[in-house]
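## Example pair
The file below holds two records. Each record gives the amino-acid sequence first, followed by its structure token line.
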Amino acid sequence: MDKQTDWSVLLRVKRSAKAQATRRRILEAANRLFYLYGYHATGLDRIIREAGVTKGNFYHHFPGKEALAVAVLEWHRDEALREVDVEDILRDPSPLGGLLRFLEAMARRTVCPDEACEVRGCFFGNFALELSAGSPAVRGKLREIFDDIRAVLLRLIRAGQTAGEIRADLDPDRAAGLILSLMEGAILLDKAQQRQSETLQAIGFVRGYLTP
């Protein structure tokens, strides 16, 4: 009985690991294709083919394309925060320096990793332009993600004010919202002109705006 139970546990673990790997392949494929071509121009058949899974595999993990979009947004957020090492940024002995590092990391992630284009834009901003008016589920997830980014900025601004690095007369909440809006607008302009310049100017402006 014990031996059978052990084999049963191992089998469940193996199946779980395989299912997780399949789900990750779908998310990675959808993330890549949505970023390159947009949500509406990317069909499910192409995502399934790119991921190397069956339709049955896909529908086992996601009931449809909209649910996949919500999951991809969440996955992309987690990957982005891990890649920029937000925890390390929040521990920066210079909160102002950490904030500027965070904005620079945001800007770097908008540049294309290949020659398909020069600026691919903000993944979340791209989704907001395409879907926020038509999908309550996507809009809710985007609101959550932008709130997460704003929260990072808010913590750094408050810490910077305490350290005397950031102007004490600024309202932290308002400043965090303005900085996020400025960066998203600059990224959109850079995508429209396919060269990174506005985001770099925006970061310089933020430095001057925050410094006492």
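Second record, same layout:
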Amino acid sequence: MPATQLAAIETTVQKTHRWINEIMAEMDWENPDKAYAALRVVLQTLRDRLSVQEANDLSSQLPTLIRGIYFENWKPNDVPNRQRTFDQFVAPVAEHFSGDDSVDPEWTCRSVMKVLARHVSAGEIEDIKSCLPEELRDLWN
């Protein structure tokens, strides 16, 4: 494998670690596995509420490794998910972390969105927000 391909792999791993570290900082967590899980469940929940086109547009700005996490188990024929209330958005996070009383599902969503907004263009974030009901747009505040 040419060195440039290996460098690309190393770069995406480094970027993924940076995102996970930022989530840990936002959440005041010390567990990278927990931060990874938060990133995964929030990104996939967001993805499923976007149209196929908008989900693809967002993916183009994600590091390669995070893009793989984002698209894992995606069923484009089933999107956008019509469960569009705030409680329905937060529910997969609550379910994933059930039994862990230290996780606030709403704060987890907000923290991941904050990290996402640092790494994705403001225009793309605005496009995403415009596709969502107003109560879900507030996750970025």
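Notes on the second record: The longest helix spans residues 3-27. The helical segments are 3-27, 32-47, 52-59, 64-71, 86-96, 105-119, 122-131, 134-137.
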